[in-house]
Design brief:
alpha+beta; GIY-YIG endonuclease; three-stranded antiparallel β-sheet; 3 helices
């Protein structure tokens, strides 16, 4: 199963949207600078996550949907409704 997630930089408040099969490992990689897109902008925290995408294609589709709504009211409401204990 795949996760789609949104991270927020504690350094500059920017967001990053991605997908993975192992959320803990992926967050660690972001915080260790192993991803060129997020390097030098961490530390990062998870501010949103959806799980149980059965295929990579499903996760990629949802990631693209989130990226298309990024910055909009609907995206902000989605982030505000997130409960971190559901991860």
């Amino acid at each position: 199963m795949f996760f789609v997630y949104v991270l927020k930089s504690l350094k500059n408040k920017r967001r990053y949207i991605g997908y993975t099969i192992d959320l803990e490992k992926r967050l660690k990689e972001h915080n260790e600078g192993k991803n060129t897109s997020t390097r030098n902008r961490g530390p990062w925290e998870i501010i949103y996550c959806e799980k149980n995408f059965p295929t990579r294609t499903d996760a990629q589709k949802r990631e693209k949907e989130l990226k298309n709504m990024k910055g909009g009211i609907q995206f902000q409401q989605l982030l505000e409704s997130f409960n971190p204990s559901l991860i």
